[in-house]
Amino acid sequence: MVPHGDVPDGDGFDVGRRLRQIRIQFALTQRELATRAGVAHGLISMIEQNRSSPSVASLRKILGGISMTMADFFEPDRPQDTKVVFRPEELIDLTSQLYRLNGETKSGKISLRQVGHARSHNLQILHEHYAPGADTGPTMLEHDSHEGGVVIAGELELTVGEQVQVLKPGDAYLFDSRTPHRFRNVHDCPCEVVSACSPPYL
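Below the sequence we write its predicted structure tokens.
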């Protein structure tokens, strides 16, 4: 929980204000956005008042109600470019804003860094890091995409529907993202993954 008012993170980013601006831009009431996103009406109100900071999963679900990516949410003025090569420092960080706002450290968390402008290519490529204990959450993810990836280092537990597998370096996955799924690092070493999703989810 965070106090009412502006969110005092290092970059001065106000998630509540940004969400309210977007909702008004799309001419939606809080209830209409909640219905579209499939979340409780009270959640939208709490976030807009900065009385509650959303998790990555809950913010993504809300943005799904207006077909907006997290990259567009956090960097609305980022221009689409024609770059072909991206250096590590040029990847777009999709998660650190939320973790800072929630007062959480990297321990037990997930880092998702995007290559370029996903929407313009209809393809999202992510460099992912899962610290020990990191978990996408007990609520299974579902979205209208297809996704795949390769584990580069560490181990990652993948649940897709009724299947649960532990992937090790070199192991890969590919599935229809409409099937409920979850990612967890249940081991004591960090895990690194390179993944792709089309159309973009985050």
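The helical segments are 15-25, 30-37, 41-48, 56-64, 70-74, 96-101, 118-121.
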